[in-house]
Amino acid sequence: MAIVSIPDQNVTLQEPAEIKAFLAGIDIDYDQWELVDLGDLNDASAILAAYGPQIERVKEQGGYTSVDVINVNSFTPGLDAMLSKFNREHWHDEDEVRFTVRGRGLFHISPPKHPPVSVEVGPGDMIRVPRGTHHWFNLCGTRQITTVRFFQNKEGWTPHYTDSHLEENYQPVCFGPEYISA
Q1: What average pLDDT does the segment 145-171 reach?
Q2: With 96 labelled, which of 2, 60, 77, 160 sits at a CA distance of 20 to 30 A?
Q3: CA–CA separation, 35 and 50 (whole Å)
Q4: pTM of the entire structure?
Q5: Parallel, antiparallel, or unpaired for β 145-151 and 117-121?
Q6: Which pLDDT tens digit goes with each residue over 22-60?
Q7: Distance, C-alpha 84 to centroid of its chain
Q8: Cβ atoms 32, 126 nearer than 8 A
Q9: CA atoms within 13 A on the CB side of 116
């Protein structure tokens, strides 16, 4: 389940309906998919098959032509170099659409006319950051995430950096369900 934080307003949202409504108000699509038990399986084709109907629906609705699965963890060679491409404020020529299968990550989104928002995604969370929207991404403390990525054109997913250095004002701190009292 996602957690949304608006640091400038000292607000945290945890209820799925509240999160979905708030994010829709800043043009971010969010949904939760029912998780499929994959055990310890990290096979991309098994993940794509398990979520096939949902993936096809999103591809059709958004005009996405391909998907892939990225599975990174603290042992992934070159992880820090990979992450350094996305932990600075940037935007893309196409939507950034991710469905999180395992692990946790933190999207920092800087929508026009609204203070930056942090969206911690975890298993079952589906998010679409529209093309042109300024954002950056950090992994949570476990430094592990498995996501299905959607593309209209992989070249459109190249980051265009704003060089605003806005990300320097925000800590890449995830809360996660283990830090929230019941």
Answers
A1: 91
A2: 77
A3: 9
A4: 0.92
A5: unpaired
A6: 999 999 999 999 999 887 777 899 999 999 999 999 999
A7: 16
A8: yes
A9: 21
Residue 78 tokens, joined:
């070159």
Query: Based on the number of CB atoms within 10 Å of its own CB, is 139 exposed (0-12), middle (13-18) or buried (19 or more)?
Result: buried
Per-residue model confidence as pLDDT tens digits over 51-77 = 999 999 999 999 999 999 999 999 999
Cβ within 8 Å of residue 154, ≥6 positions away: 66
Give me the residues paired with residue 106 across strands. Answer: 120, 138
Q: Which two tokens stand for residue 45?
A: 């084709």
User: Domains of the chain by range and CATH?
Assistant: 3-154 (2.60.120.10)
Predicted pLDDT at 54:
97
For residue 149, the one-letter residue type is R
**What value does the mean pLDDT of the chain take?**
92
What is the rounded distance in angstroms from the CA atom of residue 98 to the CA atom of residue 87? Answer: 16
Give burial (CB, 10 Å; 0-12/13-18/19+) of 26: middle
Please say whether the beta carbons of 54 and 32 come within 8 A.
no
pLDDT on residue 34: 95
Tokens of 104: 């946790």
